[in-house]
Amino acid sequence: MVTFADFGLKQELLRALDDLGFSEPTAIQEQAVPLVLAGEDVIGMSYTGSGKTAAFGVPLLHNVEDGYGLQVLILSPTRELAVQIAGELEKFGKYIVCNVATVYGGVAYEPQLRAMKEAHVLVATPGRLLDHLRQGNVDLSGIFSTVLDEADKMVEMGFIEDVEDILSYTPEDRQLLLFGATLAGEIERIKEQYMFEPKVAKATLHVDDDLLRQYYYNVRPHEKFSLLLHLLRKERTDQVMVFCSTRSTVELVSDNLSLQGVENVIIHGKMAQNSRLRAISRFNRGEVKVLVASAVAARGLDIKDVSHVFNYDVSQDPQEYVHRIGRTARAGESGKAITLLAPQDHDAFSLVFRNYGISPEELPCERFRRVPFRTGAARKNGSARRPRRRPTPRR
Ligand code: ADP
Ligand code: MG
Fold this sequence. Notes:
The chain is of the alpha/beta class. The protein folds into two domains: 4-202, P-loop containing nucleotide triphosphate hydrolases (Rossmann fold, 3-Layer(aba) Sandwich), CATH 3.40.50.300; 212-384, P-loop containing nucleotide triphosphate hydrolases (Rossmann fold, 3-Layer(aba) Sandwich), CATH 3.40.50.300. It contains 15 helices and 14 strands. It has helices spanning 11-19, 27-37, 52-63, 79-92, 110-118, 126-134, 151-156, 160-167, 187-194, 224-234, 247-259, 273-284, 295-298, 318-325, 346-356; strands spanning 42-46, 72-75, 100-103, 121-124, 145-149, 175-180, 199-203, 212-218, 240-244, 264-267, 290-294, 308-311, 335-341, 361-363. The strands form two sheets. Strands 3-4-2-5-6-1-7 form a seven-stranded parallel sheet. The protein is elongated and about 75 Å long. The N and C termini lie far apart (57 Å). Magnesium ion binds at residues 52-53, 149.
């Protein structure tokens, strides 16, 4: 396994990544970081949420040196993304000396001018930066690296000429990095004209259709739980994760499974880290076969491979689906991802289809026994296993 330390990054950066809980580089980071560190021109392509910001941001911060003025320019198609990138860079760079200035339209020039004077790194949208450049407000001659983040979107939004103008203000031998989910079309022109022997770093979604089979059932909301229970009993499941979007659904599903005699553990975001870890270690040891989880809580935790992922509902965030199903069919083992779709989940689910080109197969709803789904059951603290005991009344 590759670690961030293997890249030879500054201790200060490693510490910051550790603080952020980045325990290992993502696939795009593993490929791009060494190339960016080495000063190569890089085309970095990977899906949304795969960690592109750190893939270019961390090695660039490693190469920034205090005392040399403005050295890194990052262009972003939108103001929101610019702010987000700058925020991330500040987190990565919190233990080094590195000022990040953010520049975008629709606000006063003056504060941006001041910020740019102190900055080592500038994150900007093209239009406003060009205004500053034409007014002679900023000097890009010390730039050693320029990044076009969401480069394809920049083209789509008609910024390509602005970008080319801006590039003409930077030294010819500066590094150029293009990052995005897809890079095609007019981006080729940038590649041809401004890049020197670009290296490609690419990470595709790790969904192997042969190994990971994806299904969904259309089901009425009040019958979801019965279907889940039926499938848990019918499918030859080994270790199973059941994902729910909210903490309260995690708890309800867990309680109802317990009522039906299905032993399970839970993790969600409001649990203390050590109770989460305890639940996971029981699950990983195989003592309990079912883990009911919110995906947010499961992220970044080391959970053993599972045979089945059930999506009890669909998150509004399409990335979430990918994170969830990524829990099964790892390391060449086969797995199933089964989504239970109620009418209110359809919109979110079709977003997954569109964004990721994923096409799960619909299974006809089968006959299953209806069991009650108790929503009123007050829960006990922490564990989902033990029967509820009444609190001793206080006097
Ligand atoms: P992208 O630009 O590819 O869409 P981002 O750079 O915005 O992705 O990262 C998505 C999320 O993943 C962010 O919340 C980020 O903090 C987190 N992240 C990035 N790299 C790692 C890592 N190595 N380990 C854990 N989380 C990471
Ligand atoms: Mg990004």
